[in-house]
Amino acid sequence: MLIRSLTVFVTNYSKIQDNVEKIEKLNEDYIWSKRISLPPTQKDISLSKLVELLPTNSKDIIFSLINLQENDKRINEIKDILKTDDRIYAHILVKSNENLKELSKILTSLEPEEATRFALLFNDDFLVTPYFPTSTANTAYDSFGLSLLYVNEFKNEKIDVVLSKADAIGKQLERKLGIKFLGIDASLSPWMNESVGELIENKSGKIFNISNLWYIAEINRNIFESVWKNRINPIGFSEVMLPVAEDNILRERAKEGSLTLKDLLLMSYVCVAGLDMVGIYSDLTLYENILKSIYYIQYTKRKPYGVRIIPSNGEAVLTKKFGEIPEVKIV
C-alpha cells in the first residue's frame, strides 16, 4: 500500500505557504504525492492573481487552484491559466444541463497535457477529496485527507488491513502536522501495472462483457462494508475508479477496441466514479451529447461524477506523465 496522495484542504489563500512548508518537511517514503487543495474560487479575485499566490520553490507539490461554478464568466480563462504552470489543476462544478455546450467548447480547446489537469464535476456541491482535479477545500477549517494505492492488497483480500493501517497513519500525521485529519477517500484506483481492469477481468472475463457490471458493484459494496466495519471516515468518491490512461489493462483494451465509450458510460452507471482519462475524438456535438448523458447518469445515481476527457484527432495522444493515451472507439 502507498499513500497515493496527502492533500491539505486550505481554507484561506493566505495560508498556502504555511501549509506547503508543513508538508514539505514530511519525508515518509510511503507518501507518493503531496497536494494543496484550495476553496471554491472567490468571485472577487482574478485567476492570474491566484497563480501569483503559489510558492515558486515548491516544485513537488501540486495545487487544486481553480474551482469554479459552471456559470462563472472566468471559465474561458482556464486554458491560459493551465498553460502557465503544470502544478495547477482546475475543475468546474456542473449542477445543471444549461451550460453543456459551452463546457464542451472548453474541453475540445484543451491540449492533451492541459486536459489531464482539468475536469468537470457533476454534483450538487464541490467535493472534498484528495483526488485531483475535482478536489476543493470546501471545509470549515484547514484539514487533510488521504487517498490510497492498494489494488494488489485488494486482490489478496486485505482491504481491512489497508484501511486500518491508513487510518492509523492519518492519525499519526495529524499529530505531526498539527492539522485535523478529515478522513480517507477509499476509492480503489489503479496505477499502470496495479490494474483495476485486471481485477475485473480475472473475476468476470475480458472487458467488456455484461458480467463486469455486477463485479464493479460488488467491489463498491466491499469498499463500503470495510469502511463501515473499520470505522473509517470516508470522504470524496470512495468508489471504484477506471481512469483509462492510468491502467495498463484498460489502456490495452481501449487500444484494441474491446473497451468502448459506450462500455465506459455503462460501467459508470453502476457506481464507477466517472469517465476519466479517456481519449475521445474532438467533436463539439459528440462532447455535448456525452455531457448530456453524464448529467442524467449523475442525476439518477446521485453520486459525484468526475469527467476528464483528453481530446484526440483519430489516433492516440502522447503525454509526458501518462505516456500514450488511446482514443476510445465511439460505438
From TrEMBL:
Listed InterPro entries: UCP027893 (IPR014537), UPF0210 (IPR007841)
SUPFAM superfamilies according to UniProt: PFL-like glycyl radical enzymes
Coiled-coil stretches: none
Top-rank taxon, per record: Archaea
UniProt cross-references to PANTHER family, sorted A to Z: DUF711 DOMAIN-CONTAINING PROTEIN, UPF0210 PROTEIN SPR0218
Designated name of the protein: DUF711 family protein
